[in-house]
Amino acid sequence: MVPTYENAKTLTIPGSLTMANQKRFLWFIFIVLFIPGIGPSTTKEVIRVPVGVVLNLNSSVGAMAENCMTMALDDFYAKHAHYQTRLSLLTRDSKNDVVSAAFEALHLINIERVSAIIGPQSSAEAKFVIELGRRNHVPIISFSATSPSLSPSHSSFFIRTAFSDSAQVEAIAAIVGAYGWLEVVLIYEDTEYGNSLIPYLVDAFQQVGARVPYRSVIPPHYNDREILKELNHLKSTRARIFLVHMTASLGSKLFLLASKAGMMTEGYGWIVTEGLSTLLDPVGSRTMDSMQGVVGVRPYIPMSKELEDFVLRMKRFRFRKSSKITGVNLFGLWAYDTVWALAMAVEKVGIASRVDLASLGTGDRGQNLLEAILDLKFENLSGNFRLVKGQLEASTFEVFNVIGGKERIIGYWNQMKGHSRKLNGAAKLDVRKTLEKPIWPGYTTDIPPTKILTIGVPLKQGFNEFLKVEKNKISGFSADIFFAAVKQLPFSLSYEFSNFSGTYDELLYQIHLQKYDVVVGDATIIADRSLYVDFTLPYSESGVSMIVLTEDGERNSLWIFLKPLSLGLWLTTGVAFIFTGFVIWLLEHRENTEFRGPRQQQLGMIFWFSFSTLVFAHREKVVNNWSRFVLIIWVFVVLILTQSYTASLASMLTVQKLQPAFTDIKEIQRNGYKVGYQNNSFIKGFLMEHLNFDETQLVPLVTIQDYHNALSRGNKNRVAAILDEVPYLKLFLKKNCSKYTMVGPTYKTDGFGFAFPSGSSLVSYMSRAILNVTQDKNQMDKLQSTYFDYFDNQPACEDQSAKISSEGPSLGVYSFGGLFIIAGVASMVALLMYMYHFLCSHWPALRTISSSESRFWEKLVEVAKQFDKKDLTSHQFKQTESRVHALDTPDEGLAAAPGANDMQNNSAGTHKIVENNLGHE
After folding, report:
1. Please, is 143 exposed, middle or buried when counting C-beta atoms within 10 Å of its C-beta (0-12, 13-18, 19+)?
2. Binning pLDDT at 50, 70 and 90, where does residue 646 land?
3. How confident is residue 288, by pLDDT bands cut at 50, 70 and 90?
4. Which end of the chain is more exposed for a tag (fewer CB within 10 A), N or C?
5. What confidence tens digit (pLDDT) does each residue in 793-815 have?
6. Rounded mean pLDDT of 301-316?
7. Strand locations in 23-73, DSSP E?
8. Distances (CA, A) of 164 to 147, 149, 186, 280, 298
9. Beta strands 494-500 and 383-388: pairing type?
10. DSSP string of 699-719?
């Protein structure tokens, strides 16, 4: 039995449905399957967001970036297939032209209505495009415009998804400072990329004590001949350390020509910025061969599985597209990450605003997209993608060394720890020990010097103890100080000596003319010379003094007996003698007959008595106690004076005393005498400008023998004195110590030093080295004893020096002032006490005189007459009268008158008895 249709329906449709229900179910299936828009959909609507790309497609970086961005789109949307947005890259070729780049960007903004622009590739092109983006509120995102002159902080719609070139300067400066290079020559291309980094490099080098003596600017259009000419010029400057800041295209040409010029050999040092790293801008194998020994820095990119996979896929992609790109560089990685960042930001802004995503690049929507990009943080191929102030923040750099056609990593640098050998290793103070030893050009590990210094040395015929030049070798005290200081430097120093015949001023000026790098010798540090050179700290004593002939003419003087005492002391002593004699006369006049008599006799007594005390020859007896007190003090003063006079005179008569022929340079000038000076030294100018000597009075001298001959008597060209610096004069006096002496004031100079160009960093290093040498007593004593002997003990010269130094001024009043004060006070006290006693004892008579109506002078005369009378109450007069009266008897008075002879004899006998009696008292 064949089943009917209804039976069949019953078998295939579950349940017991009626015919009406079956019809409704079939219509539902039909509607679901064949009418669109009803029921669940299997696909979503995708919105295309136009994004402009401006690159130089003919360059290696531009081609690399285009490939990387294409792969970035594929990778991103393969991983984020559910995203509602899709970037549509509209690539334009700038043709390496600023105008073309600006034109394409303007077309993309106004015609294509792009939401953002990736690029342009170069900094010069980006400078104009950034301004277009700011005016139209379109974000400009560059992964390759690394010039520090382009700052996101100055351009609100500019984002740099790369490191600024200025981030690497501290790492480069640390390398320069570590190897002690004091000068670095900059070689850079004349573009926005090349010029903008130079100020940062110069400032960074100054921080580590290095300077930039020369900058070599190479325009991109230079041909090989022009570049080679510039390199030969650099070679002639004897510079040895170069820093190259160029892109691969120009840098590759430069190193090939530098190798041809012989500048990639031993003794040279080359540093490159990140622009010439193969990771950043691939160069050919031939160029790598010419860069052997180069040291450089580049950003550190952590290796990851994703990056390794990307490199392999990039190779396959390159072969599939038949691309000529040789590898992957950092700009390609930054381009890859830029596309990822922009795709994420577009999606984020689209979800938040729910607007037409095709108009994101206009008005406030452009600002929203900009802010969304700035807020992004993620890990990708180039590492940590995090924008700080609108650009990627560099944290760690690799230090590499090109050797064997490869870049060998020799260390790392970051701002926190500085240099370290390992990525997470601890930094050390000595960077040279922190980094692995680089292989320098010429396949050597010896650190190349800053430059080969050309050292000027003066040709000297005299005073060779200080500097002696033989062919291209130097010796002497100054040379040994230089060699000892060089050994103290923390780096090597290469130099060549060059002889110079001329004045020291002319020699030093050669540094200013850039013919010499250093002047080594006995060059004096003075202000005029410091205007065009810089001196190190001095290594010798300083000062300019004068030597003259000594002569022994003192003992032949007629008036030598007056020499022991000064004129002031002679006068003071004379006044003291007269004053003391006067005081003794006043005290003795009323009581002592020997101090009485006619006025002439009394005046003579005053002088006689006082001056006779010089030799203690006074025979007059003093009777007043106050006189005796004064006389005791005065005799003591006289004793000191006579002993001092005797000692000084004896010294003058018995010891040979050498006197300088002249002691005052002005006296020599006034009298028109000639003065000698060391030939080619600054002393000639000093004598003419500061001491106002006429040039006809000046005699140039060369050797020590010339000095001796010029000062000797009988020489036709004899000079009165020689002015020179103290070290030279000491050396001369050591060899002629018995005939000459150093006199006069010492004019200040700063001693001998070594000269360098103004602003040279080597000055501070050499000054510290000189300090270490001069403060080492053992080393300095050894150097001095090698060339000089005026530091040794030489008795003969010491005696002569003692004679000169012992000569001083005659004895003066100040030396005996205390004695005169004591004597004067004693005399005044005695005189006042005596006068007080006189006034008290004669007060009635004196009162009568004072009460009279006589004039003052008459009263004074009356008082003088009272004082002139004998003091009959004195013990002296009483004793004399009693003895005289005891000799007379009454009988003798009654006797007959004696004869004339008897009267004479009797009178003489009486006087004799009186004198004898007075003498006994």
Report:
1. buried
2. confident
3. confident
4. N
5. 444 454 444 444 444 557 888 88
6. 86
7. 47-55
8. 6, 9, 19, 13, 12
9. unpaired
10. EEE-SHHHHHHHHSTT-TT--
Residues in the chain: 921
Q: What pLDDT is recorded for position 480? A: 94
Distance CA 85, CA 80 (A): 10
Q: Contact 672/692 with Cβ under 8 angstroms?
A: no
Tokens standing for residue 362: 């206009």
Q: Give how far Cα 379 sits from Cα of 115, 337, 353, 431, Å.
A: 24, 9, 26, 32
Digit-coded pLDDT (tens) for 177-209: 888 898 999 999 999 899 999 999 999 998 988
- Whether the CB-CB separation of 403 and 292 falls below 8 Å is answered with yes
CB 373 within 8 A of CB 341: yes
As a whole number of angstroms, the distance between CA 191 and CA 330 comes to: 21
Distance (Å, whole) CA 686 – CA 521: 20
The CA distance from 792 to 784, in Å, is 10
Of residues 147, 141, 190, the one with CA closest to residue 166:
147
Whether pLDDT at 860 is above 80: no
* The pLDDT value given to residue 890: 45
Helix (H, G, I), strand (E, B) or coil at 656: coil
Phi, psi of 898 (to 5 degrees): -75, 170
Cβ burial 571-582 (10 Å sphere, 16+ → b, else e): ebbeebbebbbb
Assess whether pLDDT exceeds 80 at residue 343.
yes
Token pair for residue 860? 């004074």
Least confident piece of the model among 86-100, 138-152, 197-211, 432-446: 432-446
Residue 120, preceding peptide bond in cis (omega within 30° of 0): yes
What is the pLDDT, as a whole number, of residue 606?
74
